[in-house]
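All the exercises in this workshop are built on plain-text protein records. A learned vocabulary of local backbone shapes supplies the integers on the structure line. Once this layout is familiar, the rest of the handout is easier to follow. An example says more than a description, so a record of this kind follows:
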Amino acid sequence: MERRDFLKWGGAWSLTALLSGCPDLSVKKTKMNILWIVADDLGCGDLGCYGTTDIPTPHLDRLAAEGILFERAYVSPVCSPTRASLLTGRYPQDFRMEDALTGDDHGALTPDPVTAAECFKANGYRTALVGKWHLGREDSAHPLNQGFEYFYGFLGGLIHYYKHTYLSPSETDEKKAKVDYFDGKAVVSHERYSTDDLTEKALDYLKKREEDQSPFFLQLAYNAPHYARGVKKNHTPPVREILQAPEEYIRKFAKNPQDPTLREMYRAVVSNMDDNIGKILDRLDQTGQRENTLVLFMSDHGATLPHGGSNGALRGQKHTLWEGGIRAPLMLRMPSKLPASNSKKISGVRFRSPSFVRDIFPTCVELAGISSFPKENGVAYGQSRAGEWLSGSEVPTERPEFFKYGEQRAVVRGRWKWIQESFDSAPQLFDLEKDLSEQNDVSSQHPSVMTEMESAWNRWYAAYVERELEIAIAEEKINRERWEKAQGEERKQAQGGYEWAQRELLRARHWMEVCKK
């Protein structure tokens, strides 16, 4: 179903569960509220409920203890692609959003897909985004044009926690940093700590919804614990430029508060975020909204090690397809008014088989009683896991999930992980049930699994490769003509663009050959 048809149709509200064996949702007198809380760059080694001991996270630990914790939740290795999949239930490659958006790049979320905000809005929900967007600065991609009635936050990938400014990777002059903080489309200028500020806005929103009794879909997307300024080759900014935290939290974790280490500062940032999430959970309890609110917490990908994060025993980090890049924290708590099919309270459950970010939107649609997930023919969507979330009993899946990032590619299927790091490296195979840290390549022992998973990846990416090659050819031509016409300093700048376009064309041709196999 295309977006325009879905919005005209209006979503067709239904109170009957679609999955066989699910309880009849028609007993609900009100629609279920949905709250997604998204952290930024948080790793599985940064939360107590995942085993860390150096950062107290009692509120998120409590959320996990009262619901379901997912040990193998898969996302993309960088911000924008994960957020696109979360909101659409689709692969980010559908939107040419394989990498994180930077500056004013093209590649924003297109107007075509029906987003979660549009779906819930069409079915009587109030919708809001508080915090990070990172899906494009074009007007058509703005949150207010993607189904959110209310937006307070920032459009880019990172901000200074107090100044709310953004400095692009190519810039070093702090004076050029621009404020990237908005109330709707109006710029907001103040120096309130972002995590505290975003939480207050979310609390205000919850209060309004409690007063008017409107069902809501709220996405609270923190910038924490993402760095405010990145570490670059041959240049490491002072710790207080890389991250910022309230002084009382720095004093809590730093041996020398005047000169904290990066990990100490990171611990302060995460602890503050956890306390703020505690305020959200307390508000739901105090107002009675907990009884009818699904609360989901996740990170958009694994931690960045040079910026203070930890992925525990997992190999790799952000920007890689190792488990440390694509396996992220995920936990949820079901509404207390929505009983499990076995009539037992779901608490302290751990799902150990793979779960995928693309499944979250369709699952929430079904749990909300919406009769039809807005699908478009020929598009691969995630699958509803409503029965598992309701019962607290997972059904292990052998459904493969595919990943691509630059020259890296991978497939996760059940216990198996197939991965190729670069064009020049050999594919490897890991048994994640026995080898969490991906240290023992067992490809020679399972040649048939290797063949099956590589063939499956090739078939998946074949749907995209012709388009990517056509675009690469066109971009190479444009950049070559620009370089040939340019003079002086402009020619040097144009040469960089031409060289980039040449590399992209070579990569696209490589993937075309791969998919022909």
